Amino acid sequence: MSYSIDNMVPSSIEHPTTLDEISSALCKSNDEGQSVIPWGGGTRITIGNIPTSYDTALDLSEFTGDIEHEPGDMTVVANAGVTIGSLNALLGNEGQRLPFEVRNPATATVGGSIASNASGHRQSSTGGIRDWVIGMQIVLADGTVTKSGGRVVKNVQGYEMHRLHTGAFGTLGVVSQVAFKLLPTPPEQQSVIAWFDDQDTAQDVGLSLVNGLFNPEAISLIHGPIAEQVITEAGEASTAEETWVLIIRLGGGVRSIERQVNEVVGASGANGATGYAVLSDIAANAAWTILEDSESQSHTIIRMTARTSNALTASHEIPISDLEKDKRISTICDLGFGAMTVIADLTNDEESLSFINSTLQTITKHGGSYLIEKCPVDVKQDMDVFSDVGNSIDLMRRIKNQYDPNGTLNPGRFVGKI
Is the confidence at residue 322, as pLDDT, over 70? Predict the structure, then answer.
């Protein structure tokens, strides 16, 4: 594995397999004034500002240990190195699952997913990863092991300090173990796509389903090359100059799924959909994989979080200009959650910088926060990839200084280049 981040490489790599080894490695680095960047599966390691220092890579992928699953309590406790895919496979044997999704679950780890507050399209129905953590074990920069919350829901008490570490990108401590609440796996799942030649109509249909008689597992509105790929994967074709695709995943019993599919198809047809398709399991997996792969493989990715209406309005105004001819810009709006992901294949630094600045202006104009998940290193040098948090940055700096006074963990990579 390459441990390079933004063209920087560490002088040493640690592979701890026990809690004591994690604690010792951090204690040693902290005492010697060496900087440490924790690693999991590496699926989201590129997110963040350029490190101000990078001495040691702390690879936690071998810190797996035993998974403690309590089916009766619908909880599970897993170490940081356990992958989301393997954890869901184990839970599936008992008819349960993690309530959230992440990209590349076969590689993404528990620790990295928590630290980066990883997002997935199921947020439309179940919320984010932060909502399902009931306890956490953290190793601080000086090697001290701390715990927050509990292992079963009824035992959770006190301050939920684990929420502070979710999405802190490992700047306050290394996530070593996490306890999650679980959900039952739905008996059946079915995906449906419907495509439109008008954005307003597509989003109105989507919002009517979000606010309708049932709650879709996931529902996204897609525009751009990715939308065309999803239609092609279903064995269909769109002749419209521009196409907006709704992709909806439904969950429930057999009869419930039938009713939901009829509702989706009926709403789409009644509102002038250009076409629709009820996807086979193979086609559904392929369609959702297109979204996942596009987000993982593109050169420039910006994620906006706002009220759903604001995110949709912003998506109307994403600056395509001369790039439209190449059709290299796609947007994915998660309708039930209020998130928009802008995906662009722009390898030219000047072109990328101009596009990013225009997109951020649009997002800010509509009251959204943003995270530039990926962009060229030369572009990243002159900006903060996180939204401006205003006066909150002073509090965040004080918290960082309290938890990591020597600046050992992920220096310079978080909000405000903390």
Answer: no
